[in-house]
Amino acid sequence: MSQDSNYIVAKFGGTSVADYDSMLNCFNIINSDPNVRVVVLSASAGVTNLLVELASGCDTERRKEIIEKIRIIQFNIINRLQFPEEIAQRIESCLNHISSLSEAASLSTNEALAAAIVGHGELMSTMIFTHLCKEQGARAEYLDARDVIKTNANFSEAQVILERTLENADKVLSLLADHEAKIITQGFIGQEEEGKTTLLGRGGSDYSAALFAEVIKAKACHIWTDVAGIYTTDPRIVPNAKRIETISFKEASEMAIFGAKVLHPATILPAVRADIPVFIGNSKDPKAGGTWISKNVDNPPTFRGVAFKRNQSILTISSLRMLGASGFLSKVFSIFSKYNVVIDCVTTSEVALAVTVDHKQNQGHGSLNNPELLAELHELGSVKIEHDYSLIALIGNKLSQTSGLSKALQALDNCTFRMVCQGASDYNICFLVPAEKADSTIIQLHKNLFE
Ligand SMILES: Nc1ncnc2c1ncn2[C@@H]1O[C@H](COP(=O)(O)OP(=O)(O)O)[C@@H](O)[C@H]1O
Ligand SMILES: N[C@@H](CC(=O)OP(=O)(O)O)C(=O)O
């Protein structure tokens, strides 16, 4: 391992900082471990969604309603503090700033303005939490994450510029020189070259935490959420799902990529680069234990878990010109690339090609509704688009070599399924089912393989 410190970075998600009692749980967690020195927070639950709506441009009435909702969330916390006056003023001035930015967005919005608005959720939660920590008698230092996390100017899903970010290690380490101070900073936000706020994509605070861990060469990164670890599938769908005690970076990243919301897919990258173990636990029940993610695990099982993504569309191009022709696929993919459409799965036959596109993920990317994209694809063959599918992925090890798949596939007995992708990866097998069949298929698949 490359770690040369005992520092731990702890990240708390939106539900963990949703109200005063939850924030107090977070304080107790960080206060009970002197090695936890950098604390990364998301916005209080619900705030980011409200800010996203403001950023899209709303009329005066709706703007007032939304800002009032945000005020209620934040002041429900502030009003429980012992000395709320100063922090109340700071949050009021944030709300005024959000109000003027969202008025501008209602006239004409753009990605930079939207990021500036949406980033306020994390700014407010960290200001309040820093105050709470100080009130509880801890030494807490507020750090603006934008001084450290440097990105390109792709405002809604910015790419981190690693060298420029690592160069800022001293800004964090100098604060850590005070051996008792806890550094409180924001997840999800960064800064581009001109100094404007950027966002790391929805759910990106996990990624921020792992980046901070890499920057300070931390011993571990703890992600505190509302569930005590990574389970064999989403426990909200299968209450019988079992916690995975230890899992490899590779397996965990497959779970995340295929939709296990408990972890942002990019989180693992910095942890892998710097070989920093990641722990996932429940901030409301820290004694319940959790999942450790690390480079290698003993005896990784063939079947690890079931992940899924909703809002999938299938685009099929059929053309006899594909038959025996070379270069057909490259033409299709260069069109997708031109229109910035992100593809998840691909299947082909002699005369047809089908791809899946994640509707939600595609918000910051090219959309399948673009008439110019469709016109160019039409030149290559007939095009059909079908919506309302869910992508289900069975995650495991050596899956391209296993002979035990029939048990898994029995879960599909009563269901039409599409686009089975098996063999390309050793770590997953995925397929699409109609959206309304997703939950029952996940439940059955889980029963067949894990119960
Ligand atoms: N395999 C899984 N294991 C655990 N939780 C999962 C899994 N798949 C999806 N989830 C969901 O992820 C949720 C936690 O993610 P999220 O709501 O983004 O938390 P946070 O706001 O703390 O970042 C859980 O409540 C759970 O429903
Ligand atoms: N607040 C941001 C970033 C984030 O990571 O949130 P959470 O940790 O609550 O998923 C979002 O809602 O996307």
UniProtKB/TrEMBL annotation:
Residues 7-282 form the Aspartate/glutamate/uridylate kinase domain. ATP binds at K11, F12, G13, G14, T225, D226, Y231, R236, K261, V262. GO terms for molecular function: aspartate kinase activity; ATP binding. Pfam families: AA_kinase, ACT_9. InterPro entries: AceGlu_kinase-like_sf, ACT-like_dom_sf, ACT_Aspartokinase, Asp/Glu/Uridylate_kinase, Asp_kin_monofn, Asp_kinase, AsparK_Bifunc_asparK/hSer_DH, Aspartate_kinase_CS. Keywords: Amino-acid biosynthesis, ATP-binding, Kinase, Nucleotide-binding, Transferase. GO terms for cellular component: cytosol. One of its GO terms (biological process) is homoserine biosynthetic process. Belongs to the aspartokinase family. This is Aspartokinase. It comes from Psittacicella melopsittaci.
